[in-house]
Amino acid sequence: MAEKQRIDKLVASSGKYTRSEVKKLIRAGLVLVDGIAVRSGDEKADPETVEIRVKGEVLTWRRFTWLMMNKPAGLLSATEDGRQKTVLDLLPQELQRQELFPVGRLDKDTEGLLLLTNDGATAHELLSPKKHVDKVYYTRTAGWLTEADCQRFREGIHLDDGLDCLPAELEIITAGEESEAYVTLREGKFHQVKRMLAYCGKPVLYLKRVSMGNLTLDPALEKGCYRFLTEDEVNLLCRK
Ligand code: URA
After folding, report:
1. How many CB atoms lie within 10 A of CB 33?
2. pLDDT for 193-211, tens place per residue?
3. Topology, domain 135-212
C-alpha cells in the first residue's frame, strides 16, 4: 500500500497531462477511480489499490519516475545552476516538480544517454563501481588509436594526476588522423574518458554515452528529448 494522494497530483505526475489539463479532464468527468468519475481534484486515493482511468486508459502509477534523455551538448547535468541551463530545463513543469536528478553526470559538451529519476537508492546503486554497471561511450578522438592504447585501457591506466582507473575497454571502430571508438567504463570519475584518452595522447573531439548497464539510448529519441522508461526497462536497470 502507498499513501493516499490527491487524484489531480497523481494524474499530473504521469507526465502526460499538465495540471490545468488534469483540471479540465476532471471537470469533463474523464478521470475515473474504480469506475466512478472523480468530482474534485482534491479527492484522495491510494494509487496502489485503486484503478485510475483517464479518458478510458488505465493510468500506470509508479512510486518513482525514471526518464531516459538524449542529452544535447550545452546543458549542465545538474538540478539547478544560478547561471546556466540544466537538463531539467528540458522538462515540463509537471516533471520539474518531481525532484528528479540526473543519474551520474555528463560533461556540458557530452551528449547522449542520461537517466533522470527521483529514486535515490537505485540511482546510488547504479553508480557504485562495486555494482559493475558498464557505461559505454562513443568517442571521436584526434590521433590514431592503436592496439597499444587498447592494452593500456585493459590494464587500467594510472593517470599523471594520480587517479588510478579500473581496467576498461577501448574498442576501435576506425583508426586514422581522427579515430572513432567505443569506451566502456565501470566507474565515472570526473572527465574520465577524456582524461584516459588524453593520457594516450588522443584528445577527445566528441563524446556521447550510448548505454548504461542493460539500457541503450533509444535511437528514436532526438537530441534534447526524453521519454519515460518502460516497466521492463526499470526492472532491467534494477537487476544490474
Ligand atoms: N567521461 C568524460 O570525460 N566525460 C563525460 O561526460 C563522461 C565520461
Report:
1. 18
2. 999 999 999 999 999 999 9
3. Alpha-Beta Plaits (3.30.70)
